[in-house]
Design a protein that fits this description.
Structural class: alpha+beta
Shape: globular
Largest sheet: 8 strands, mixed
CATH topology of the largest domain: Ribosomal Protein S5, domain 2
Distance between the termini: 18 Å
Order of helices and strands: EEEHEHHEEEHEHHEEHEE
Helix content: 10-25%
Number of strands: 12
CATH architecture of the largest domain: 2-Layer Sandwich
CATH class of the largest domain: Alpha Beta
Radius of gyration: 20 Å
């Protein structure tokens, strides 16, 4: 069984060991990996916790839709920089990827300059976890470069950056509890999905808004959640945040209906939205549905249509030294 990531105290964390001595390089080092998107096949929301977060019970699945993240470590102390070509609003220190690099440096006591470049392929503010995945990708790259294998410490750093970030440190589907940090590997068969991301900025939903709407709409606290199934079934899909979000944005209901009308066996909103997705019986059925939806007039301008498949393996970190060093690429797994 795959080991779990858990950052709860005190039961889940062993006594902290001294941070390992960072690996030193005489030249710059560049590392590249993919940062996969995710969907929430199940999202159950519990009461608000004293720390301001909600207790959740969620089945999360990484996808083959992914950003490309490049991390360059400079051979001297320096700042953290982050650029996202085509998305100037994501540049700079407020990007979760830059915050992850800063948190890593504080935790492990290394102050080398870090330059991050992200090629966005995952829609932004879409409920697909793109920013959290970018942050986790940076942590995996930095851990590889500095020879750090302390999964508990990395999970703590990830949770400091964001609730979804710990999930992206593990490979494959997982049930997430707590605020997202208590992870248990899950068995999910290969799933072919069609994702519909509305480009209308008026439909953009911030996670804090979705949870606030949910709290306002819920009258009673749940007594408990249904037990987790060992193997996923399409009848399980559900998202507690969907009803209040659809109530405020009825256009999402039309998108869900379109997926079902094109043959999806199930269709729900992912995370806090506004992206919705349908589960199809095979890649061919998913592609036919995507082509049919994409042929409509509004698709392309107002709607992004994506075909994706769940992934099981963790994206590899590819590392090589700067061209001046003459080193060859390495394909060792992170």
């Amino acid at each position: 069984m795959r080991s779990l990531l858990c950052t709860r105290r005190p039961a889940c964390i062993a006594p902290r060991e001294p941070a390992p001595t960072p690996v030193c390089y005489r030249t710059g080092v560049r590392l590249v990996t993919l940062a996969p998107a995710k969907v929430n096949l199940v999202l159950r929301v519990g009461p608000l916790r004293p720390d301001g977060y909600h207790e959740i019970d969620s089945l999360m699945l990484p996808l083959d839709l992914a950003d490309r993240v490049e991390v360059r470590l400079l051979p001297r102390p320096g700042p953290v920089s982050c650029v996202v070509p085509g998305h100037p609003g994501l540049d700079g220190p407020d990007n979760l990827a830059a915050r992850a690099a800063d948190a890593f440096r504080r935790r492990f006591g290394t102050w080398r300059g870090i330059a991050i470049r992200i090629e966005k392929r995952v829609p932004v503010t879409a409920g697909l976890g793109g920013g959290s995945s970018d942050a986790a990708a940076v942590l995996r790259c930095l851990a590889r470069a500095h020879g750090i294998r302390d999964r508990t410490a990395l999970a703590e750093v990830a949770l400091e950056v964001g609730s979804d970030v710990p999930f992206f440190l593990v490979g494959g589907a997982a049930w997430a509890g707590g605020r997202g940090e208590a992870l248990v590997p899950a068995s999910v068969p290969p799933l072919d999905l069609v994702l519909l991301h509305p480009r209308d900025s008026g439909l953009a939903i911030r996670a804090a808004e979705a949870y606030r709407w949910f709290d306002a709409a819920r009258q009673d606290r749940p007594a408990g959640w249904p037990p987790r199934r060992r193997r996923f079934l399409s009848t399980q899909v559900g998202n507690d945040l969907q009803p209040p979000c659809v109530a405020r944005h009825p256009a999402l209901s039309a998108l869900l209906g379109r997926l079902l009308g094109c043959g999806a066996v199930a269709a729900i909103m992912s995370g806090s939205g506004p992206t919705v997705f349908g589960v199809f019986e095979g890649r061919a059925a998913a592609r036919r549905a995507a082509e049919l939806i994409d042929s409509k007039e509004e698709a392309g301008k107002d709607l992004e249509v994506l075909v994706a498949r769940g992934r099981r393996a963790h994206p590899r970190v590819t590392s090589w030294r700067s061209p001046r060093s003459g080193s060859s690429r390495s394909t060792r797994r992170s």
